[in-house]
Amino acid sequence: MKFCVECFGCRANQAEVQEWILDLEKAGYAYTHHQAEADFGILNTCSVTAKAERDVFRAVNRAFRRTHIPWIIAGCSATHEGDNLKRLFPGYIFLDNKEKADMAAEVRRRFPQESNLIFHSAFRSRLFLKIHDGCNFRCAYCIVPTLRGPSRSRPLESVLRRARYAASLGYREFVLTGINLSSYGFDLFPRHSLLEAVQGLAEISGVEFIRLSSLDPRYLRYDFIQGLKATGKVCPSFHFSFQSGSNSVLKRMKRGSKVTDYRRILDMFDRLFPDANLGADFITGFPEETEKEHRETVDFISNSSLNYLHVFPYSPRPGTAAARQDPPPSHVVRSRAGELKQINRNLRFAFRESRLGRVLDAVMIEETPNFSMAVTDNYLSVRMPPTRGFKQKRISLRLTRVVNDNLCEGEYVDLPKARIQP
Predict the structure, then answer these.
(1) Helix H or strand E encompassing 240
(2) pLDDT tens per residue across span 85-139
(3) Is the separation of the CB atoms in 84 and 92 below 8 Å?
(4) CA atoms within 13 A on the CB side of 29
(5) In the beta sheet, which residues pair with residue 215?
(6) DSSP element (H, E) containing 308
(7) pLDDT tens-digit profile of 317-349?
(8) Alpha helices in 67-191 (DSSP H)
């Protein structure tokens, strides 16, 4: 029996989907990229913004009209808008965040089959490994704690067992993800930490690259960053949930951080990971944000070592504290978001240009007859001459050209010419 998947939202959602695929393939179900070949589909949803939720509704509607297979609609939108979805799309299966926790069991119950085969589709070249869910903070703008519940960490041995299995399948690059990844282990008994999870992962044979998804600045200390560096396997690419560069906005957001904390954090990463690609989330147009506060954010970014931004126009979510306040006019929000997005493009291009001529470690993620694609340890996408037999393998490359702010080109270093396709 074949199945397909669709995914919206964060890396935690991507990690969930990847785990479902591995578990279902182990149970004898075959993953396919093509909906026309599938016997059923799974859609993991997102409600972090109103736009994300609209995109989910459009995707479900498209699947409802164009496919003739049953779908499991799971996750945050099924939790937040389950009644509306059930009314609009009768016959589909809806699983909220609690019900989707054991997706493989749900699938076996609803789509039983007899098979002794074990499949492996190499859904991605890197493994997204979700080790944490939920959040105990109540930031003024965020609906995620309502939808995901309190902070919950996956037991450390379970994390390492899953990683060892994935490494045995050939995965070399691992991305640790979680709703609030930095708080990993605080709820476990005995207590563990994110650094312990990274250190355990680094000791597994076959694990060559370790990446971390978004880091909460409230948890970042020098000894943590020092420990990451000491493993020798943590990639020099880090993302932070800053949200604003204005102290007054951060206070209204209930973020529990100040701009001086952000400067201190960036300085520590600059010292221990001097070639790192550093990025951060920023929400623009938060309720009552003034032009002066916006300029404070722009000034902070311009005088920081950040190399890219993820920019989100503020989106009020029902039930959050900020939803009761009035944001700036929509044209002001669009203008401020546009300014930050242009800064992002400039930062990304400048960072790539500064790496021209350098030799970087990378993992090959795609091989086609016309080109191969690699991702460097500092998270640059690089188009390479075509090869065969190097997918998921570690290589060295030299950056030769910046195509745009998303793509570079490169040449191989120390790769046997016989493996480069003419």
Answers:
(1) strand 237-243
(2) 999 998 899 999 999 989 999 999 999 987 766 666 655 668 999 999 999 999 9
(3) no
(4) 28
(5) 240
(6) strand 308-313
(7) 999 999 999 999 999 999 999 999 999 999 999
(8) 76-80, 82-88, 103-110, 144-148, 156-168
